[in-house]
Amino acid sequence: MRFTILTPTYNRAHCLGRVYESLRVQTFQDFEWVVVDDGSTDRTRDLISSWKAGFPIRYVWKPNGGRHTAINTGVQMARGQFTAQLDSDDSLLPHALERIDYHWRQIEDQERFAIVVALCLREDGTVVGGRLPRDHVDVFGIGQLAALTDGGQWGTARTDILRKFPYPIFKNERFLTESVVWNRILRRHGARYVDEPLHIYRVTPDSLSRSGDHRWRSPKGAVLFHAELALSDAPFKMRLKSAVNALRFSAVAAARQLLPLTSVE
């Protein structure tokens, strides 16, 4: 199987249909859809079981632990050669997987690469983060990535490599930025960025990005991210800022050890 589409979800039955419809009309059909339900209490399970798709849908429910824990579960379940994360409020253009397959095949030395990254569109048709300077740019390391873009793209990664870089899990913390994993991968493998929008990014009232700065409730994960970034090949100002943030969230993490969890949640 070529692709696994991985959707972590939590009480998002009201918008999962959009993901399903965008997958149903894909021009490239060699894929499965893995939905990892991170403890939903709505009708997510019943909704997914009602769909009669022309592609495999694999659903699993797990106790709530945070989006990153659901991604870990999904990556272990994945049967595709490549895994593409598709959040529950986003969708793909009909030719997205066909084009991602094409871009992977254009890479001559595929063993050096872990990720192919495409652009994202907002609902109004504008490109998130802007266009690239060329039709594709190969990136090796965080420094090169920082010089190219400040984020907002959609990546498809080799499943075998993703399994080597699971999200770390900290007790009583339910958030960890995906940059921890992508940065670790980029230290050892390349990423090809292509100047082609293939993903539609939506922000809904209950989107994770709308619910505040999660680092304060998950400070150990924040320390890990900022400490690793401070020691990377990122630009000096970015490393300095991350070093300060690592110290700041270390203090928050230490305070959490001294206070009851109920006082800081």
Short key terms for the protein model shown above:
Spore Coat Polysaccharide Biosynthesis Protein SpsA, Chain A, 2 domains, 9 strands, 35% helix, disordered C terminus
Description:
With 265 residues, the chain is of the alpha/beta class. The chain has two domains: 3-210, Spore Coat Polysaccharide Biosynthesis Protein SpsA, Chain A, CATH 3.90.550; 214-260. Helix content is 35%, strand content 20%. It contains nine helices and nine strands. Strands 1, 2, 3, 4, 5, 6, 7, 8 and 9 form a nine-stranded mixed sheet that branches. Helix 8 (219-230) packs antiparallel against helix 9. The longest helix is centred in the last third of the chain and has 23 residues, at 236-258. The protein is globular, with a radius of gyration of 19 Å. The termini are far apart. Residues 261-265 have low confidence and may be disordered.
Short description:
With 265 residues, the protein is α/β, with parallel strands linked by helices. It has 9 helices and 9 strands.
End-to-end C-alpha gap: 42 Å
Alpha-beta content class: alpha/beta
User: Count of DSSP helices?
Assistant: 9
Oligomer: single chain
How many domains, in number, for the residues?
2
| Helix content, binned percent | 25-40%
Task: Give the mean pLDDT.
Answer: 93
Fold blueprint:
Blueprint: E1 3-9, H1 13-24, E2 31-37, H2 44-50, E3 57-61, H3 67-77, E4 82-85, E5 91-92, H4 96-105, E6 113-121, E7 136-139, H5 142-148, E8 154-158, H6 159-162, H7 179-186, E9 190-200, H8 219-230, H9 236-258
Helix pairs in contact: 8-9
